[in-house]
Specification:
Layout (H helix, E strand, L loop, with lengths): L2 E6 L6 E5 L2 E4 L3 H10 L7 E5 L5 H12 L1 H5 L13 H4 L3 H4 L6 H5 L5 E4 L8 H4 L2 H7 L3 E6 L2 H15 L9 H10 L7 H14 L4 E5 H6 L1 H11 L6 E3 L4 E3 L1 H10 L2 H6 L1 H5 L1 E4 L2 E4 L18 H15 L7
Parallel strand pairs: 4-5, 4-6, 6-7
Antiparallel strand pairs: 1-2, 2-3, 8-9, 10-11
The protein binds adenosine-3'-5'-diphosphate.
Adenosine-3'-5'-diphosphate (A3P) binds next to helix 2, helix 9 and helix 15.
C-alpha cells in the first residue's frame, strides 16, 4: 500500500494523507486500519456507505426504521429510538470509533447488524468485498450506497465545515471548497472515484449492492423506500383489494415520516443534543440544515457551477451514471 504525501488541509491545520488514491484525516488512519483488518463480517450484516454530506443521516434513519419497523409497531412514539438518539448514534460509522470500543456492543450483538462507513469501496475489509463467486458460496452481507448531486454535496460540505470549525481557523470560502472538491484533495476524496467504486460494484452485484440517489429519494420516496425495503429483505406487505395486490401505502408512509427531515430536525434530541466527534462536541443540529435539492443555486456562481459540471462530465463519461 502506497502512503503518499501529507497535505495540510485546505482551511485548517488538520493533516490529510493519501492512500491508494484517496485522502484521509491523519488521525483517522489507525481506526480505519483496525476496521479493515479486524472486522468480521456476518452474512446478514447491512452496510451503509456514503461520501460525507450526501444524506448519510437520512440513510441511517431510513434503514434503521425499515429494519425495525415491526418492533416499532407495538411501541409508542416515545419508544422509537430515533426520539432518544441521533441517527449517527443509532447507526455508527465504524471506522470513526473502531478502536475506542464504542461499537463493541453493536459488533457483539446477536441481532442483525446495521453499520455505516464513509470509506471508499476499495478500502473496505476483504470480507465485505469478496468476489461474487465467494459471496454466493458463503452467503453475503448487503451494502447500500447513497450518492448525491456534486454541487449540492459541495455546498452542504462547505456549510458543515464552517459550522464545525467555527471560530478556529476563519471561514472556509466557497471558492476554496469548490477548488478542493474538484481537485479531489479533501477528506475521503476524490468524490467521483468514491461514488464510482460503489456504482461499478452495484452493477456487478445488484443483489448485494444497492445504489441510491438522494434526489430520487426526494422525488419518489415511496418507490425508493419500497425498493430499499425489498433489497433489505423487509418488503412492505401487500394488501389485497380484489384487483390484485397493492403495497401497504400507510406503512411505507409511516417509515418515511419517521425518518423524514421535518420530523428528525424538530426532535428534542436533535435540537439540543451533541455527539462526540474527533475530540469535538458536535451539536446534532448541524446534521439537519435544509435537506433540499438544488440549494447550490443560492451559493455557487455560474463559473463555479460550470467548473463542477465539467469535472462531473469528464469523470462520469462512459460510466452510465448521472448525478
Ligand atoms: P443540506 O446541507 O443540503 O441541507 P450527511 O447526513 O451525509 O452529513 O448529509 C447532510 C445533508 O443531508 C444535509 O443537506 C442535511 O440537511 C440532509 N439531511 C439530513 N437528514 C435528512 C433527512 N432526513 N432527509 C433529507 N435530507 C436530510
Amino acid at each position: 500500500m502506497n502512503k503518499s504525501p501529507t497535505e495540510e488541509l485546505f482551511w485548517d491545520t488538520a493533516e490529510i494523507h493519501e492512500i491508494d488514491g484517496f485522502w484521509y484525516y491523519a488521525e483517522r488512519m489507525k481506526p480505519m486500519a483496525a476496521f479493515r483488518s479486524q472486522f468480521e463480517c456476518r452474512n446478514d450484516d447491512v452496510f451503509l456507505a456514503s461520501f460525507p454530506k450526501t444524506g448519510t443521516t437520512w440513510l441511517k434513519a431510513l434503514c434503521h426504521t425499515i429494519l425495525h419497523r415491526h418492533d416499532q409497531e407495538e411501541e409508542e412514539e416515545e419508544e422509537d429510538i430515533l426520539t432518544k438518539k441521533n441517527p449517527h448514534q443509532v447507526v455508527p460509522t465504524l471506522e470513526f470509533s473502531f478502536l475506542l470500543g464504542r461499537v463493541q456492543h453493536l459488533l457483539l450483538s446477536p441481532r442483525r447488524r446495521l453499520m455505516h462507513t464513509h470509506l471508499p469501496y476499495s478500502y473496505l475489509p476483504e470480507e465485505v468485498t469478496r468476489s461474487p463467486a465467494a459471496a454466493a458460496a458463503a452467503g453475503c452481507s448487503k451494502l447500500v450506497y447513497l450518492a448525491r448531486n456534486p454541487k449540492d454535496t459541495v455546498v452542504s460540505m462547505w456549510h458543515f465545515y464552517n459550522q464545525v470549525h467555527k471560530g478556529s481557523a476563519g471561514p472556509l470560502s466557497v471558492e476554496r471548497a469548490v477548488e478542493s472538491f474538484c481537485s479531489g484533495v479533501m477528506p475521503w476524496g476524490p468524490f467521483y472515484e468514491h461514488v464510482l467504486g460503489y456504482w461499478e460494484e452495484s452493477k456487478k452485484r445488484p443483489d448485494e449492492v444497492l445504489f441510491l440517489k438522494y434526489e430520487e429519494l426526494c422525488r419518489e420516496p415511496k418507490e425508493q423506500g419500497r425498493k430499499l425495503a425489498s433489497f433489505l429483505g423487509r418488503s412492505f406487505p401487500s394488501t389485497t383489494d380484489g384487483s390484485g395486490g397493492t403495497d401497504d401505502d400507510d406503512e411505507v408512509e409511516k417509515v418515511l415520516w419517521r425518518s423524514s427531515f421535518g420530523r428528525l430536525k424538530e426532535l428534542e434530541v436533535n435540537k439540543y443534543g451533541a455527539v462526540g466527534e474527533q475530540g469535538l462536541q458536535l451539536s446534532h443540529t448541524i446534521y439537519f440544515r435544509k435537506g433540499t435539492v438544488g440549494d447550490w443555486k443560492n451559493y455557487l456562481t455560474l463559473d463555479m457551477a460550470q467548473c463542477i459540471d465539467q469535472v462531473t462530465r469528464v469523470k462520469l463519461q462512459g460510466t452510465g451514471l448521472s448525478l
